[in-house]
Design brief:
Blueprint lengths: L6 E3 L5 E6 L10 H8 L4 E4 L9 H5 L3 H17 L4 E7 L1 H9 L7 E5 L13 H4 L5 E3 L7 H4 L7 E3 H17 L7 E6 L8 H9 L5 E6 L12 H20 L2
């Protein structure tokens, strides 16, 4: 497997963005987002989550709590670098981790991108039992379009223990949505082959924030940060973050 690392860029506007990638993904999924916001002076921290970008065997030894800890390290990196305002953007599972973090830490605003709060495959909850019989499931999949494929570093197999840990995280965050007050931008890809699009509506309806926006991007598949709508998505998120900041700071 090619070496994949965490991403960090020092900014110059006093604002930082925490970028969180998806389950079995890597920071490469977030690279275009990082470059976009870096160009506007934001500090960027995109931590490689525990067990990711290494091997299925390594992933199997981690749980959502280790993934969350990796995300927390990225948050603290931004704080330690002197950023007075911090935002979060999470792709898929990364969005669920961002929602979890929003209960512990202060974000000016956040964005969830194609994040799975409604589980499409109900078999996920049975992975807690199946993992003892079948530790891994094949990671084979159809090839993505070339403009997406070049950023992917897929595992050959996926640990069912990790699948169940993801399910636990989703179920926990689902019940906590009403307590989350952070302004939120919710994006859902229109051709999502992985996440039930109802997830976006569920987050919008159940989250406790009064400042929220939901936009669908019809031309994109699940990894929306790499697909056809990505530039429009980045501009929409940036505009939302600026609107929230103006409403708070009055300038």
């Amino acid at each position: 497997m090619s070496e994949v690392r965490s991403i960090y860029h020092k900014g110059h506007n006093g604002r930082g963005i925490l970028l969180l990638h998806g389950f079995t993904g890597t920071t490469l999924e977030m690279k275009p987002v990082a470059e976009f916001f870096r160009g506007s002076g934001y500090a960027i921290s995109a931590p490689l989550l525990a067990g990711h970008g290494t091997s299925p065997e390594h992933l199997k030894k981690t749980t959502w709590r280790e993934w969350l800890y990796s995300a927390e390290e990225g948050y603290h990196q931004l704080l330690a670098s002197g950023n007075r305002v911090i935002y979060a953007i999470g792709l898929s599972m990364g969005g669920i981790l961002a929602l979890k973090l929003a209960q512990r830490y202060e974000f000016r605003a956040m964005a969830t991108l194609s994040s799975p709060i409604v589980v499409r495959d109900t078999r996920m909850k049975y992975a807690r039992y199946a993992k003892w019989i079948l530790p891994y499931v094949p990671g084979t999949r159809e090839k993505k379009a070339p403009h997406i494929e070049k950023y992917l570093v897929p595992y050959s197999k996926t640990p069912l223990a990790s699948v169940y840990s993801l399910y636990q995280l989703i179920e926990e965050v689902k019940g906590e949505l009403p307590q989350i007050k952070t302004p939120i931008f919710i994006a859902q890809s229109g051709q999502d082959e992985t996440v039930d699009p109802a997830s976006a509506d569920y987050i919008y309806d159940e989250i406790g924030s009064n400042y929220k926006k939901l936009i669908h991007y019809p031309l994109s598949s699940h990894i929306i940060t790499l697909d056809h709508d990505r530039h429009q998505l980045f501009m929409d998120v940036a505009k939302f973050f600026e609107e929230v900041t103006w409403s708070v700071e009055g300038r």
